[in-house]
Amino acid sequence: MDLRNIMEREQLEDIEIQLLLEGVYRYHGFDFRNYALASLKRRIWNMIHNEGLTTISGLQEKILHDREYLERFLFNLSVNVTTMFRDPDFFLTFRQKVVPILRTYPFIRIWHAGCSTGEEVYSMAILLKEEGLYHRSRLYATDINDTVLRKAKSGIFSLKLMQEYTANYIKAGGKTSFSEYYTAAYGNAIFSSELKENIVFSLHNLATDNSFNEFNVIFCRNVLIYFNKALQSRVHTLLYDSLVRLGVLGLGRQESIKFTPHEKDYEQIVGSEKLYRKMG
Asked: CheR-type methyltransferase domain spans which residues (predicted)?
């Protein structure tokens, strides 16, 4: 295949993807049009192969006419890779540097934007419980994907993961035995219902939805890397507007506030971790 044919094929592929995403947005209201194109292509083609299809247009037909295909599409395009106490140094820094700030508030509101299956939310619930702050905290866990939200709400994870999660918990400054927070049954770890008492699970689309409260802390970790620059700017403004003054923003290791609309409105809490405090 010569260069001209390759370029024409890639151009056609981009047009098909744009039509697919436009159709999903217009008919179902889910907006992926400003997600990073390279990542989208990989996820879309993975789904095409898994569904036994051959073309993007064929996938579009299925998604627009079959709700089950839409659910699988949302699952494939959502970022669902997470672990408890992921990047333990981040949580250790949060415990050491941010918790003293939170102690000064009579009530604490925390937003986990793009919470996926909930491991980060339960990690924070455990941390706050150990610091004596959970009883006056409310954690809002949101995601675009209803399927992963249902899993998050269940608080049930594979028992095979607990060794890794326990190691992360210890490195993150855990103060007791991690096994105290769950019950082992039928190959699963069922986390204590007490950890869910102050968690609100809800659908929220960072690409289209607006702010719904003011927060003392917002976590949006390992989500922005999947957006293009325009959507990143939109989300950064949403997060900034949702934080109280002196509120704390936590990002993923590969993410930054540099070159965003509010770069100058934050101060970094610790240079090695992506924790920022809103000053503007």
From this structure: 5-280
